Amino acid sequence: MIGWSYAGEAAFALQQADRDVRVVIGLTTNVLDRWVYRPDELKSVTPAQLTAPYVLIDGGTNTRPALMADAASRTFFVHMKDMAHGSFNVLEGMLPSVEALSTVPPWSRAGPHQQLGFEVAMQYVRRSCEQYLKAMPTLDTPFTLWDPDGELPDGFVTMEQGGKTPPLPPQPNFSTVEFPSVDKLAVTADWYSFDNKRAPTIILVHQSGSSRGEYRQIAPRLQQMGFNALAIDSRWGERDRWNGVTNETAVRAGTSAVVASGDIPRMRAMQAEAAQDVGGALRWLDANGYTGPKLLWGSSISANLVLKLAATADAKVVAVLAFSPGEYHKDQPTEMRSAVANLTMPTLIVCAEDEEQTSRPIFDAIPTRDKVFYRATTGKHAASILVDDPGNWNAIEPFLKRFL
Questions:
Q1: Among 128, 162, 196, where does a domain finish?
Q2: Residue-wise pLDDT tens digits, 177-202
Q3: What is the C-alpha separation between 203 and 258, in angstroms, rounded?
Q4: Mean of the per-residue pLDDT values for the chain?
Q5: DSSP labels for 310-364?
Q6: Which secondary-structure segment (H or E) carries 11?
Q7: CB burial readout 129-153, b (16+ within 10 A) else e
Q8: Residues 32 and 55 sit within 8 Å (Cβ to Cβ)
């Protein structure tokens, strides 16, 4: 539900009447204060009634409504002090700014500053819709994950958060194990097994900045299919956004300090060193008598990693699954296409709806004919598309069943 101006009262009423409303977005609106049609009823509204996330984008001297602080769901007050009421309206704000009109209604403003503000507001609307309609909401917010695109003046936009953090999703059964990487760093992993050492095993590697917790809603499905699954903490990570699990391997490796330093060569080296963690996982499986076929599974930056490993001559795996790989290093625009030039094993490449231009060129560069490309129509990025929309499993499972 998106409302502007006095439509706020109606937006609140709809959220109360329909529990299927997944987010309320207000553009300089009176959704939680300044009621004009039913002002007496506003006095009885409580934070407990705000059971859907509320995202209010406002300007001028308006402040966050008091109800948002202790709401039953998450709330966000995005404020651009130089924006006027009409600035958030296409006809009264965006178009006058684009057309350089100097005469606008008294509740609006003109000029390029307003155009920028309108563009930023629309990005926040889009990010909010992606967060709450297109994917399973994460523990992070749509605003800390995705800052507005482009350069903004200092202090152009501020954001206040309120409300309750959503509970953790149900946690599956698994055991946590630890083993040395090839270069002797202790690696933590979650182990999903049904005690069949001859069954195939999938090594699951997480996104950049994430952890083994990324797979707590994915690995049980693999286990049900007949796979053992080993979700590792690679050293290139911090904490996953779905279950809030700290990456213990990264803590030992001092990854946060490397990231904070901004030392690009060292960061690139640490990304590459994550291959040592995958190698340690393979050794641990062998040492514990798991003789079944091994598969590699990567997510975002680790999709690149597992593709590189699978393309080496001494790869000890039978297939590779890469979710949202891409040429992520701008100074090496063909790095991945070169890396997969010798990849001959069965390969599945998966991407989100708006990532085909990123992932398809890598798929096209793989020489083997035994490859599958799938572009999801729902879901945001990488392996999490399986959490965002379980229907995406229908394209993944046929590839996996070949190895059972």
A1: 162
A2: 999 999 999 999 999 998 889 999 99
A3: 26
A4: 89
A5: HTSTT---SEEEEES-----TTSTTHHHHHTTT--S-EEEEE-TT-HHHHHHHHH
A6: helix 8-17
A7: bbbbebbbbbbebbbeebebeeeee
A8: no
Boundary of a domain, candidates 133, 162, 191: 162
Domain containing 131 equals 2-162
H or E element: which one contains 269?
Answer: helix 264-287
Are residues 84 and 59 in contact, defined by beta-carbon separation less than 8 angstroms? Answer: yes
397 in helix, strand or coil?
helix
Pick 403 or 114 by higher pLDDT: 403
Q: How far apart are CA 53 and CA 34, in angstroms?
A: 20
* Residue 148 sits in the same domain as residue 190: no
How far is it, in rounded angstroms, from Cα 301 to Cα 324?
Answer: 8
pLDDT tens figures, 21-53: 989 999 888 888 888 888 888 888 899 999 999
Quick one: 333 and 391 in the same domain?
yes
Task: Tell the residue number behind the tokens 């194990």, with chain if given.
Answer: 177
> Is 139's pLDDT higher than 80?
no
Helix (H, G, I), strand (E, B), or coil: what is residue 77? strand
* C-alpha dist (Å) from residue 57 to 80, 137, 160: 8, 20, 11
Its pTM stands at 0.79
Give the span between the Cα atoms of 367 and 371, in whole angstroms: 9
Distance of CA 76 to the CA centre of its chain: 18
Q: Which amino acid is at 94?
A: M
Same domain for 116 and 200?
no
Same domain, 153 and 205: no
169 found inside a domain: no
How many helices (H) and strands (E) the chain has is answered by: 14, 13
- Cα separation, 79 vs 56, whole angstroms: 8
What are the C-alpha distances in Å from 121 to residues 59, 93, 152, 156, 240?
10, 12, 12, 11, 27
Q: Residue 59 above 60 pLDDT?
A: yes
Count of domains for the chain: 2
- Is 325 contained in some domain? yes
